[in-house]
Amino acid sequence: MRSAAGGRVRLFVPWLAVTPDAQGLAARITSVAKVRAVRVFPRTGNVIVWCAPDRLDLDQLVRAVEEAPPAATPGRPARRVPQSSTGEITRLLLGGAVLAVVALRRLLRRPKWATGSSGVFGLATIVTGLPFFRGFFRGVTGRGHTGTDALVTTATAVALLLRENVVAITVLWLLNIGEFLQALTLRRTRRAIEELLTVGEERVWLLCEGVEVEVPLEEVREQDVVVVHEHHKIPVDGVVVSGHALVDQAAVTGEALPAYIRPGSEVYAGTVITSGSLQVRATSVGPDTTVGRIIKRVEEAQADQAPVQTVATRFSRRFVPVSFALAGLTYLLTRDARRAMTMLLIACPCAAGLATPTAISAAIGNGARRGTLIKGGTHLERAGAATAVVFDKTGTLTAGRPLVTSVVTLSDDVSAEQVLALAASGEIHARHPLAQAILRHTHERHIEIPVHQACEVVLGMGMRAELDGTRLLVGSPALLRHHGVELTGDGRAWTEHLRDRRESVICLARDEEPIGLVGVSDAIREGSRSLIDQLHVLGVRRIVLLTGDTPEAAQAVADDLGIAEVHAGALPEAKLQLVRDLQAEGHTLAMVGDGTNDAPALALADIGIAMGTHSSHVALETADIALAGNDLQQVAAVVELSRHTLRVVRQNYALALGVNILGLLAGAGGSISPVLAALLHNASSIAVVANSARLVRHSPSQQPGRPKDR
Fold this sequence. Notes:
Layout: E1 3-5, E2 8-12, H1 22-32, E3 37-41, E4 46-50, H2 58-66, H3 86-107, H4 117-128, H5 130-140, H6 148-161, H7 165-197, E5 203-208, E6 211-216, E7 225-228, E8 237-248, H8 250-253, E9 259-261, E10 266-267, E11 272-284, H9 290-304, H10 311-334, H11 337-347, H12 350-369, E12 372-374, H13 377-383, E13 388-392, H14 393-397, E14 398-409, H15 416-427, H16 433-444, E15 454-458, E16 462-467, E17 470-475, H17 477-482, H18 489-500, E18 504-510, E19 513-524, H19 528-537, E20 542-546, H20 551-561, E21 565-567, H21 572-584, E22 589-593, H22 599-604, E23 607-611, H23 617-622, E24 625-627, H24 633-668, H25 674-693
Parallel strand pairs: 13-20, 13-22, 20-21, 22-23, 23-24
Antiparallel strand pairs: 1-2, 2-4, 3-4, 5-6, 5-7, 7-11, 8-9, 8-10, 8-11, 12-24, 14-19, 15-16, 16-17, 17-18, 18-19
Helix pairs in contact: 1-2, 3-4, 3-7, 4-7, 5-6, 6-7, 7-9, 10-11, 10-12, 10-24, 11-24, 11-25, 12-24, 12-25, 13-24, 15-16, 24-25
Organism: Saccharopolyspora taberi
Membrane topology: Multi-pass membrane protein
InterPro entries: ATPase_P-typ_cyto_dom_N, ATPase_P-typ_P_site, ATPase_P-typ_transduc_dom_A_sf, ATPase_P-type_domA, Cation_Transport_ATPase_IB, HAD-like_sf, HAD_sf, P-typ_ATPase_IB
């Protein structure tokens, strides 16, 4: 139960959003309780019941709504499994089956294989490693780059030449698993984007000759007038022709507070009416809406992103051809195939192949321990090269929800606690975020809220309530003026002072007397200023605040945090353009955001970072790095971790390269045998793994260049 006063009860029913049986629930409430009216809102899970106060039985109401109907028992709808190619599944199954047979035979102590088993292993190896072999031959023929595929092919060939068939197929099977997981992640991203395209309303109310007619959303065309009621999503982009409402536009504009919409205002598909109702003339429908364009921009940004050459790729391109050339030259000069084979064995780039993935895996595990999900080594590498960082404001640098920051009393007879109690009494049934902030703050301070006898919403202004024979007005200064109440000189001065601090002002009047003010603002998240300082210390040259909020609100946050560059009022396409402009200036750009409206910019940026578990699903899927918590310090920690990881990777390559060069020289001179070459090769691999393992316990706070905690 959310609230109960004056014969009006608000209930929250969790299963209602899953099984939107509005009519059935209303009928059940009516049958078990003596009520005058019931309104059910499936999208928000809210139920409002009106009844005579003396006939109110709360226990009976709660029992009526607490159990979901039988059809709702399964809870969540089944999720569609992403489609996978037949080739991927075949390679995984074949490799897994062969390795399972090997394991079973060894378990049964049957090491000997029947005649022809080598052919089976060879066929399984070819099928399992086909994508890598193709990539290698494309590189050899000039249709691609000789890089990672050459590493895999070379390692496989050496293993087969040494009759290590099980080793060859094991390596290829594990690599196929990695490729499959990467493809699965991409499919999940695409599915999240597709789900975003649905604005949440499969059927809408169309106004036809003054009559509301329910039709499928796909039948709506431009210039049609749709009617949207409270708690429903607006299904089209358009212009309001009738009605007034508060609309939550955070998904598109990033504004922290709902906007007051009146005739002539523009509205966007996917935004939600929190109070009121509207008639909207459609100007864009389906994929042409703002939400549809967001999806298109995300897909374009992901397609346009230039492939980054990782350290492993650059190293292998140079080293693999050199190794083959030296082995061939040795054979031509000595005609000793054994020496050439020894050189290939010592030069087999297993240690080089382990240099990057082991370090990256350790670093990703390090980040995961601190609540940072890094979706791949390429993203980790780029994070360390960031020269510019763009921050979204709402929900990233700020808490993303309004908080009470000031309470002012305008009467000697009224204390600050009484101002809060009376304001909360007037706002107890309001759903506006400012009202919820007052109620939340009052509850947190354990202040008792008096129960009013009647209340009325004055749309766009506030609430009017009756309390113990007095009239309460809680809302904007315009509400007081509308009822003939004027603020005193002191009240006007405080109002201007709070607005100068970028706080939204809620006025409180009792009968004809203004008695208090409450200031509410979207508070800056703890650690924001420290983060900006840390990024400067780490050498990030340009920090930008980018938001769809008003210029005044954006500048206030920028001033508090010491950010010099501000771009306000930016819709998703404007955010995307700013990212392009910064990249054109030569910056390696990190974008930090949390909303659907940030998704295109997160996708196009060199490093996209989604902030916190409250981030929209699409933002989390699109971003390269996701922060599980709300600790902003992790943004700087990721940059530092990336740089330290690259130092470890370079150490690994120096180690691998040193062993390979010494081995090549010794092998060319005939100083070592193939057995010793294999031992050196394994030793270098173990040393690389041990060096990378140090990253698991690395702590960014211990590194130089990071401000010490005070």
